[in-house]
Design a protein that fits this description.
Chain lengths: 267, 371
Amino acid sequence: MNEDFIQNTLKNKSHDQEIICDLKNICTEFGDNIVHHNLDLKVKRGDIIALVGRSGCGKTTLLRHIIGLTKPLSGKVLLFGENMQAMERVAQRRLMNRFGVLFQQGALFSALTVFDNIAFPLRELKQFDESVIYQLVMHKLALVELEPRNAELLPAEISGGMIKRVGLARALALEPELLVLDEPTAGLDPDRSHNFIDLVKQLKKSLGLTVIFVTHDMDTLASLAERVAVLEDKHIIEDCSLKELAKSNHPFVINFFQSIRSRIEGL
Amino acid sequence: MVAASFRVAQDNQDRNHVQLFGQWSLREPLNDFAKLRKSLQPFFLDNFTKWDLLELEQLDAAGAATLLSGWGNKLNNNISLKPEHEELFNALISLTKQPNKKTTVDWLSPLSSLGKGVLYLIHHFNEFSRLLASLLLEIAYLFRRPQDFPWREFSANVYKSGVNALPVTALLGFMIGIVMGYLMSKQLHAFGADVYIVNILGLSIIRELGPVLMAVLVAGRSGSAMTAQIGVMRVTDEIDALTTMGISRTLRIVLPKVLGLTFVSPLLVLWTSSWALAGGACASNLELGISFRFFFEYLPLVVQPINLTLSLIKGLIFGFVVALVACHFGLRIKPNTESLSNSTTSSVVTAISGVILVNAWFAILTRGIGV
């Protein structure tokens, strides 16, 4: 009992520095096209990290490696300290419940209503009866600031911004520790994308999430990211805060920042 | 991380004190709320149980909702909470599901559903006629501007639904021919009417079986593919993209499919019937010892050539019906997976039923010809 206690306090101390996602020596190839070569990336608990880089440089592929949809040619992906590809099925499923994913197009089940979409992962757990599920779904809907009357709509009947919110609510249904967002604000107007970013930030604070996201949008990057990982030339060339990134003298990063500056000056 | 747990103590009045510990949260992977609820059930039922939630490490909506459902969706004085948890409980209580209104039995519902069904059918019929009319208009337009004919799509459709269907139609035709020939030769042999096998097989295969078999196969093979293809094009806005380029969707999507299948169907009928006849000839050769040479020399003498013409016309009509039905259902698909699967099913079922209906009607019209 005492030992347990000590171990727990030790764990809690190292809690903040715990590495949630650890990519080691990732290599990916599509035919002759080498996408990642000996790529390393560490994500600590509580980080909001943005993955940036030019189109087609393998950001989404890296994201898919992290969530276990694809397997790198070589190298290791450790999520919560465990290698998902080498786990048995039940443990793997349990691990997958510890992160939530919001896909670029929302990836809502088109045949199910908004309510059923959010209830789906909860029902799959087979731990709750319907009245509890109802409360939990409505709670998640309120969390992403959607009206209860939207619950009975089908994904085809709601707007792009709402689809993202419902996708987020579904990703959050199982109280994940890690949230993975693929282009969270793509296809939203500036106002909505601003709201969406605020929502993610606020949820991050209240639920203690770690967030990994991919974006092309400078505003999203500037307002959401606490750390930026730049993927260029098959490696992560920079992994630091946005401020430190401004001091970098890598040609790609300079170019990248010039585009931000010129946009700001152009306004 | 400590899994959710509880401890029960009894005070001097024999009342239970339930104290909850650990993380009552989905985030702790070892928690199983169904089991926790089950083991807490006796205390939920006992109104005098005191609940102590002050020692909880963490409580999330899932844990709170599970406890709430045990407490009958309300808080009372027996429950001691941390203030931050109270907020969560009150939020969840406000989200309680309203009990569904009792559904009253509606005696008129069979009538109204019949009415709805009829209206739905009329709607379908309307849409179908509209599609047919716009197809005819496009054909009329093509007579004025023949250079707009979508040759490439036409030939692609002929290849996809015709050439690619050759192996499967041949195989099935041959098999059915063998089965029919084998069964009939047994019966005919019993009456000593061996030679009539040629009449029966010839007439039934050329006039009926060949076209219908081809139509059923093509509906299952190409009809479903056409519906699904048009459906996905609708889902991904490709049809709208075509329209904005000033290209008529009927001209570019529906017309090549319909004309392609109409063009290739008679040829497929010819092909299927030939293989079925070959199968029949094989069976009668094995069973009755009728030589192939005799079979095929005798065939044109007992089956009038007009039957072949009829069968080719049937093939033409069947191909037209199958393709048009497939396009009709494809264009009605809504952008979700359920609609896609429903429409594809309806397309195949309607096409096959339509073909059999047309066939019956055709049989009545041509009952005096060729037999």
